[in-house]
Amino acid sequence: MLSWSDVLVGVSLAAATKVAVDGVVAFRKSLASLGPCPGHHIIYVNPFRPLSMVTGLVFPPRGWLSHYAQKFSVYAADGSTILSSVAVGDAIPMYWLADAEALKVVTSDRHTFRKDIEAYEVLEIYGKNLLTTEDDEWRRHLMVTGPSFNEGLYALNWSKTLLLVQEWFEEIDNKSKDAESLIDLKSSMDQITLLIIASAGFGMHTPWSSTSNMHAKVKANLLSDEVMPFHIALGTTLQKLFTKVLIPSFAYNLPFQVPWLSEEAKVTNAAFGALKIHMSELVLSARMGGGDEENLLRRLVLANDAAQEAEGSKKGTLTDDELFSNIFIFLVAGHETSAHALSFAILLLAIYPEVQDKLRKEVMSVWPTEESYKNATFKGSFDKLEYTLAVIRETLRCFPAEPRLPKIVQEDCDLPGIRFESSKPASSVSTSFDGGPTNLALSLDDIQQTRFSVPIRKGDMVVMDIWALHMNPLVWGVDAHEFKPEHFIDTDTYRWPRDGFLAFSAGPRGCLGQRFATTSAVCILARLVRRYEILVPENLAGVKDREELKRRLLKWTTGVTLTPTNAFARFRKFQ
Q1: What are the binding positions for heme in this chain (predicted)?
Q2: H or E element, residue 525
Q3: Residues of the chain with pLDDT > 70: what percent?
Q4: In terms of DSSP bridges, do strands 41-43 and 532-535 run parallel, antiparallel, or are they unpaired?
Q5: Which of 82, 131, 354, 380 is the most buried (most CB within 10 A)?
Q6: Which residue ranges make up the annotated binding site?
């Protein structure tokens, strides 16, 4: 006679077998549904779930479609700008897009191509926000937040950036005993963008010196059991966002201590809690008429309250938690994008002195005297710094903050793609923007291109493969793999491909903070090259091979965005 335990084991095995069989059947069905679309690749780790941020540099390996840095190499091997795949586990057909026309269709039609909301739910730290919502709920968030991003905010951002850059320069010069300083770029860019956010985002000007040695200040604050000061709370939340996303909620309340985890959870919880307290106080101050600056938080609060008065109710407006959540997302996105893009840009200027010289000539023509840059305004300077903006854009083309974004298809449709073939197959290159192994050259002299249509079904996923698009020679030309700011300069015979640049996405769901981020980035870079010559670190000064310099200096890792890991350069002050 069978015991209850035998029955339980048997039922469990039967259930597990059914799940496995159903999974195999679903996977084979999805694979068959890909039809004639090139690719038919297998995706073993969903690239849009937290696990992929941990495994991204290790698995999948180079040469696989979902490898984090495969760029355009797999598309070139398969001869198509659209590739098909199926994800193991959920058996979802995925179509990877490096085609400018197809991606324009996707970004323009937010009803057919919706965000994969599940991938963004981890960012609902204080509540729902513009990034994590769709349809009517998304429109409600946009109605309040959209108008706050205007010329007045950008002018404020510019003026605060100028002030903080000067404080940073004074710190560098005071610490240095000679004309040269070795700068930790990631740390410095993290710090200056944090202070810009605190000032232009919250109206809280914090001196440069107060944010140094942040780790020791956090530990001292935890021992005192006091609420973290604003600038420490803001800086720590930005540093610990990855931790907040990955640590499960139950880990914050464990009745016992776990090495590393308990300390990380305590610091993270304290920082996010303190920031909410400070934001609540700032919201109250804004409503009571406090503050005389039109910072982002104040603009959002006043716009939301004005909408409530016009409607006569809170319908169609945001709760305070949603206000907190939106401004936090804006500031995280702005901080990460600006800090990391600037780190990469400065490294590239050290590696490409000819680009640095051209950039400096432009800046000197706009700001010929010390007085001219001290009194520079956003309106009077930004549009004149065309090449400076091109350097920022080219950096983001080569190192996009988000290399790929998912969309879920809501109804059957077709997307245009290109099949291409050349008598000269794609080959590895001797020079590239980063010295990486997945860069390639594709001869366009005798290439044969054929347009084709890919049928996409409701429930499928399309992947906006931004890095692949940015490295697509059919869009950017035979030198797509090279770092050349001229890619973004229009001439009489060339117009840069607007549909081929998705560093800030595009269409209705494009990044609202794009101009906010580029404003501060252009200002910082212009001021920097006017005051200092940027050089590679002393230990690399003798390296003559530029590709080797790139491989040594332009290393990165996965995170919330693409993150530099070896960002050091020398600054030599002009006399």
Answers
A1: 511
A2: helix 514-531
A3: 90
A4: unpaired
A5: 82
A6: 511
